[in-house]
Amino acid sequence: MTLLHNSQHTVWRLRGVSFRYGRGPDILKHVDLELTGGKVYGILGPNGSGKTTLLYLLCGLNSPTAGEVEFLGTGIDRYTKREIAKRVAMVPQDFQMRFAFTVRQAVEMGRHPHTPRFSSLSPEEIQLVRDVMQELDILALSHRPVTMLSGGEKQRVAAARALVQAGDALLLDEATSNLDIFHSLSILNVVKKRAVDHNLTVVAAVHDINLATPFCDQFIFLHKGKVAALGPPARVLTHDLLQKIYGVEARVWYDEFTSAPTVSFRMGGCPETGDMMGADTIGPQGEDTHA
Amino acid sequence: MILMFLLLVAVVVSAHMGFMKIPVRDVLDIIADLLSGNRNQGIDPVMYTVVADIRLPRIMAAVLVGGTLAVCGTVFQAILLNPLADPYTLGISSGAAFGASLVIVLQVMGLALPDLFTVPLFAFAGATGTMFLVLALASGGSARLSSTSLILSGVIVSSILSAAIGFLKFLADEQVGIIIFWLMGSLSGASWDNILMLGPAAMAGMCVALFYSRDLNIMSTGERTAITLGVNTTALRYILLVTCSLLTALCVAVSGIIGFVGLIVPHMLRYVAGPDNRWLIILSFPAGALLLLCADTVTRAVLPVEVPIGVLTALIGGPVFCWIFRKRQMDYDTAS
Fold first, then answer.
1. ipTM of the complex
2. Entry pTM
3. Which of A199-221 are b and which e, b meaning 16 or more Cβ less than 10 Å from the residue's Cβ?
4. Which of B214, B228, B334 would best serve as a mutation to test chain A binding (most A beta carbons within 10 A)?
């Protein structure tokens, strides 16, 4: 952990990165990006804007069709899968497990790239697994088969697996998008705490802007395969940007309850009176138009 | 441990049973003789021949074929993330049988091919070819393999192959009996030569499977996640699929098609030992060996007529396959 006191170093540097699947259209177009260590980045943007693709490029799951992805000063293609896995962990959108491994076994899989082939976990590693499971409140489920878990429990297992794995960085691919607000917040809080404690760089693709704002240091807005905006949430979140990217009317305001900038949305182009007032407004309106 | 002990007991009991009952004590003496290499302290030479030259090769073949098929089944299920996969349901056994039948037909047509090498070689070519064909058909270009399309492709390719084997049977004319042997599966033709070929190969294959057993566990998280956990999934797939095709081909070369051993054994073991492949692979060898040896002993010594072993395993395995399939369908229903 020589990186501990040097959090300003560059972890990822993307130069002119483009990507497309097969002969399909470009999903990312000439992206230049520099991500520094120890920060929490949120990748935002509408469906199909390239959020997941960008994450896959960062961990070497995809190779860019043009340009270069550099990780800790070296091209990411020059690492073996295992070397990347020692440093970068991913929390997928859906936790999958085809056979009935127990929760503990599933979390221990995060140590796979670190442990030599025929040795078992060291006492420190067992302690690490225990600590992370404790923090994510799944210690009591240790011996439960993962196939029997609820959606929220599964995502906590996935988060635990990634946290015991990550050496330098953690990628979250809409890791909480299928969860209710309680489970989303609890996972994000634990991730954020460990990221700060262990100086992890976090890159999270997130759908819900208001959920991401208190969680992230920096926002990266993607729009049609390009970086539309980059910077701290308070600076980046503007009416114009949100309208341009999502095509909706937005109001950005400071919420004292969450002490973070907050966004309210409404469909663009609707008449003032026709917005989301609920069913009881329909009656008088109907009369008005009738008259 | 218990499995190994049971297996040893089964070997001795099986050698004792048969048309000619040979006392267990004599069986033990003969095995001790064979192992130590110095022959005979006054054992009846007829008994010696029956045990050492007829029963033991067949017993050893049952042990090796059963064990190897079970290990292959475990590996196929783990790597294809598919609890219905085994050398038989994927059509790989049929491919190997097609290769082996081809050798017989070529011999009938006058080509002098040495049995001991060409049969396994052609069986291997047939097995690997079939495997890649089935995988290509099932994936349709994408990397994801759904359970249903995989089994469906296996069935389609198998049925084409059985038509092709039918044609070979027609060509083989009077030699047709030998080809029927491949189709039904039987251990009665096993010789010590077969054992010497299959034994080391089975051990080597087992080592390869064990070497990658933890990676196989990681595979169960799905292709992408497995890569982010540091597993080179493409290399792992190729190495293990080719290894298992080779092992299947060798088994088929010795015993013909014996289905469902590789399907049932991993399933039973998962209930007992959990899904960890490090244990499953170690345990599936003795368990598969025990299963096939018992089944073969039943057909050889208990039943009044000798039923081909492949027919027997299919009769037992088929319903188990139905049960697993049904159970999975219901799991999907409750999940969605």
1. 0.83
2. 0.84
3. bbbbbbbbeebbbbbbbbbbbbb
4. B228
